[in-house]
Amino acid sequence: MNLVRAVVRLIDKLNGAFGFVAALSLLGLVFLVCYEVFLRYVMKAPTTWGNEMISFIFAGYVMLGGGYTLLKRDHVAMDIVYSRYSDRGKAIIDLCTAAFMLLFCWVLFEQTFIMAKEALETGQRAASDWSPPLFPVLLAFPIGAGLILLQALARIARDLHMALTNQPLLPEDAVLEAPEVRQ
């Protein structure tokens, strides 16, 4: 059990680090958008690369922050019924849907890996005047899908432990899973 706890903590730390990097990239994205808007509307001289770079950074932000979002349980959820269950009941429901989550994560990882590999092998470039190579941005997709997959496995370990013992796997999980108080 200590090995499982150690692996879950390691996955949490990994996704926490990538979440921090994604958050920093968002600051760069905001600066870049403001810069591009200034050049386009004030200076009347937009860059040839600005919009494409904004899209690339945003794609990386979304994919590399996905595991962190799952760690914090911040994905969009319909919790009208779910919120009425105990932590153990929620864990059992999550375990019932875990196969779908794993299948989705695996297919996302596999397909985006194929895309990134093909982009690297063929030297694929964006169809624009700037024409940057697509491999770096496409690489963020399988990495992000892999991080989400790892976090999904950590989530399953947590849920399985909760379902069997009615206790959180890690002491900090008791704080993470406390119900939110909204005012």
Q: What about the largest sheet?
A: none
Mean pLDDT: 92
**How widely separated are the two ends?**
39 Å
Structural class: mainly alpha
Strand tally is: 0
The ordered H/E elements are HHHHHH
Uncertain residue ranges: none
Detailed description of the structure:
The protein has one domain (2-176). 74% of the residues lie in helices and 0% in strands. It is elongated. The model has no long low-confidence stretch (mean pLDDT 92). It has helices at residues 2-42, 50-64, 66-71, 87-122, 135-165, 171-176. It starts with a helix and ends in a 7-residue tail after the last helix. The protein has 183 residues and is mainly α.
Task: Lay out the secondary structure.
Elements: H1 2-42, H2 50-64, H3 66-71, H4 87-122, H5 135-165, H6 171-176
Summarize it:
The protein has 6 helices and no strands. With 183 residues, it is mainly alpha-helical.
Label this structure with key terms.
mainly alpha, 6 helices
